[in-house]
């Protein structure tokens, strides 16, 4: 017999992971599948390089844009009907925007807020219907250290993630009665993600940019490295497992202490 507190089993659980074709979402989808879940990945830009690994683990990749309610409903309903219900939703799809508010266009504001916040609202709305039928469920939102402590270089992203943290707590409060838990992970700088690669790609000096990103997170600085996608996925696994049966409304920083305050000089 395995111990559910230390060896989480997700046998017979059905999970949807949005933005699961790359980075943190892909690591999460694969980890949940390795622990027995039937996983459906929803992404508007499916990554062909994930195909072999997903096939091996029985992960289904569905093209879906989380900003579009029709896509979201189709993704959630497909997962619930193929899997016989829905237990887990990981709202992970997200986009960044490094720009001052005075330079942000209405379209850019909509793109960030619609992806990072409205997408999580739409997915939660449709997932909760199925979770209620199942008698419970677990939702994990991928927020950010920017949702815990706003940053000066990307205000619109910080606003979107701050609101996602607020949504996490609000829905946790509303849906405990349905035995649906709602939590968030708040990563710091994570390597091997399209988002981080895009930031580094525009830097004049890639090495210097990477160093300065690492230095802004006290533990990343002490360890001399970025956070890995599987380190965020491990926290998601805990949050969706039975070991976290009494955990709801928490926002776990996996940011090497970046959101704690101003680090020593
Ligand atoms: P990533 O770019 O590799 O992954 C994001 C995924 O979301 C991509 O596969 C992308 O195609 C998908 N996506 C974007 N918009 C979508 C939409 N409208 N509909 C469906 N899919 C969509 O980057 P990542 O770092 O793995 O990002 C995952 C989450 O982690 C995001 O919410 C991001 O804000 C958050 N995050 C990342 C970092 C980091 O350093 N990389 C830090 C903190 C938080």
Q: Care to describe what's here?
A:
- This protein is α/β, with parallel strands linked by helices.
- It folds into two domains: 14-188 and 228-253, 3-Layer(aba) Sandwich (Rossmann fold); 191-226, no CATH class.
- Helix content is 47%, strand content 14%.
- β1, α1 and β2 form a beta-alpha-beta unit.
- α4 (106-134) packs parallel to α6.
- Bound molecules: nicotinamide-adenine-dinucleotide.
- Nicotinamide-adenine-dinucleotide binds at residues 18-19, 21-25, 43-45, 64-67, 92-95, 115, 119, 142, 144, 187, 189-190, 193-196.
Task: Describe the strand arrangement of the main beta sheet, using strand numbers.
Answer: 3-2-1-4-5-6-7
SS content category: alpha/beta
Overall mean pLDDT: 97
> CATH homologous superfamily of the largest domain?
NAD(P)-binding Rossmann-like Domain
Number of helices: 10
Distinct bound molecules: nicotinamide-adenine-dinucleotide
Estimate what percentage of residues fall within beta strands: 5-15%
Q: Report the principal-axis shape.
A: globular
Which CATH architecture of the largest domain would you pick?
3-Layer(aba) Sandwich
The number of domains is 2
Any idea of the CATH topology of the largest domain? Rossmann fold
In total, the number of strands is: 7
Extract low-pLDDT stretches. Answer: none
